[in-house]
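Supplementary notes for students who missed Thursday's class. We covered one full example, reproduced here. Read the sequence, then the structure, then the short commentary at the end.
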Amino acid sequence: MQELIQNRKIIDDEKKQVILEILADKYCKLILHNTLEKPKSAMEISNEKKIPISTVYRRLQTLFDAKLLSISGSINQDGKKYFLYKSRVKSIALKCNLEVTTIELESNSSRVS
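Structure (token representation):
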């Protein structure tokens, strides 16, 4: 088995700005780190990281909009929707030389070759 690491460079300046803001937010980083290994519900994230649930939901939306988080859903036995969130990135590399900022994302998915 071999893992194929997918890296993606961010070129768009607007997208770079969004990622820089996410990296500056401690809750966004906690959520990404907490959902690296397996998908988790908003309530699990809130309980494990001691983040208010309203803050978790706001950050989940921010991370999803930035395409850094995937959402999978199902309906439980009570008929309620149940969403799980998982980080789409394993790492974010940032290089800034005051003229050019380079951001590279390493995918959190592994593929068998």
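Commentary. The radius of gyration is 15 Å. The domain at 12-88 is CATH 1.10.10.10 (Arc Repressor Mutant, subunit A). If anything here is unclear, bring it to office hours.
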